[in-house]
Amino acid sequence: MTGRAKDKDTDTKEIREYHASSVGLFFTVDSVLYRKQSSYQKIEVFVNESFGKVLLLDGLIQTTEKDEFFYHEMLVHPACTTHSSPQNILVIGGGDGGALKEILRYPVESVCHVEIDAQVIEVGKEYFPWLSPCLKDKRVDLVIADGLEFLREIERTFDIIFVDSSEPIGPSVALHRRDFYETAKKRLNEEAVVVAQIGSPLYHLEFIRECSATFKEIFKTVRFYVGPAPSYPGGSWCYAFLSDNVDPLVLQRDPPPGLKCYNRDIHQAAFALPPFMKDTI
């Protein structure tokens, strides 16, 4: 994935994130709440008048209070509504806790949440109000570890694995490689799904094409779907639905109440890709 770069360190006026050499997003900064370098990356939280609290990792926007539901609902609910009975879930990445929040809407037995950077978890608990209640849920097991190493070492299997990674730089590089998905497949139950965020259809289409070729060598079912993501490059985001035996278009249950973006109609529409994507992947 290329084409996403920070302009400079966050100051007290604005941040600019370039998606290509001459285009990007800018946010005015009302106040900086947190700015520290962890063992893995620079972590920042600032306040914007329109989007509320905003989390950046290495200068790139990860989540905002106002629009996080678009990304997290579209990451989680398509798999949870098409699997017949997901009980044991694994989340790799997603230290802000948004994916965890959506998973816990379902009557699952357990959620193992693996995040490499403990400092991201601490920042999430302090500044994003949904994370702390999730971590107090008895079904949740938080593990601070490298996602690939975790998969290599455990013997557990899962019904759904969510790969809520950031860009393929820094600590997330391994989560975008072939051996990660080959290892993940070994940790799946007989009926199981892997869902991963893949990037912007507009700016990262070549990366999505490369992922598609790799995924099709590993999984029998490889389907991509898209959803809105206002604070991400291009305003639209792509996800991969990977399985050997779950049909992503056949819903087994209604989504839970209280969602803001996802529903049955959105589900079907999300998998209807535009020609420029279909012709490429």
Short description:
The chain is an alpha/beta fold. 27% of the residues lie in helices and 33% in strands. The protein has nine helices and 14 strands.
What would the keywords be for this entry?
single chain, 7-stranded mixed sheet, Spermidine Synthase, Chain: A, domain 2, Rossmann fold, 4-stranded antiparallel sheet, 2 domains, 9 helices, 281 residues, alpha/beta, globular
What would your notes on this structure say?
The chain folds into two domains: 5-61, Spermidine Synthase, Chain: A, domain 2; 68-278, Rossmann fold, CATH 3.40.50.150. 27% of the residues lie in helices and 33% in strands. The chain contains nine helices and 14 strands. The strands form three sheets. The protein has a seven-stranded mixed β-sheet with strand order 10-9-8-11-12-14-13. A four-stranded antiparallel β-sheet has the order 4-5-6-7, with helices on one face. It has a three-stranded antiparallel β-sheet with strand order 1-2-3, with no helix packed on it.
